[in-house]
Amino acid sequence: MFLLPSSGGYVKSGGTSTPSTEVTVAGKKYIALSGCKPHSCPEQNIAVLYSPDSGDIHGVFSDFNAEKNRETLTWLNVDPIDSNAMKNALFNRLYGN
After folding, report:
1. Where are the alpha helices (DSSP H) in the chain?
2. Cα separations in angstroms, 31 against 23, 60, 71
């Protein structure tokens, strides 16, 4: 389990979401989910990969500051061992690829 930054409270209470898809990362199947802050999708987004077989869950939370034109990514439960493949899959889901 991971904790979201305090600005991500909408995730628990019902944000805007897209349909789930199945992806394979390093030979392991995951369900890919994503969503965003209601009425402000460019401001905050989240992508999550969940393995129904093992119960593993990984994510990335994006917080965009329009005034500074800066995006901050918070990686959630991504170990250094699997970081490249996992980060690529999460980043792709975050941006709709």
Report:
1. 10-13, 83-94
2. 6, 14, 25
Q: What's the CA gap between 36 and 90, in Å, rounded?
A: 14
First to last CA, the chain: 25
- pTM of the prediction? 0.78
Query: Given this model, what pLDDT does residue 1 score?
Result: 40
Span 45-74, pLDDT tens digits: 999 999 999 999 999 999 999 899 999 999
Q: Answer whether residue 40 is part of any domain.
A: yes
- Total number of domains constituting the chain: 1
Q: What is the C-alpha to C-alpha distance for residues 25 and 23, in angstroms, rounded to an integer? A: 7
Q: What percent of the chain has pLDDT over 90?
A: 46
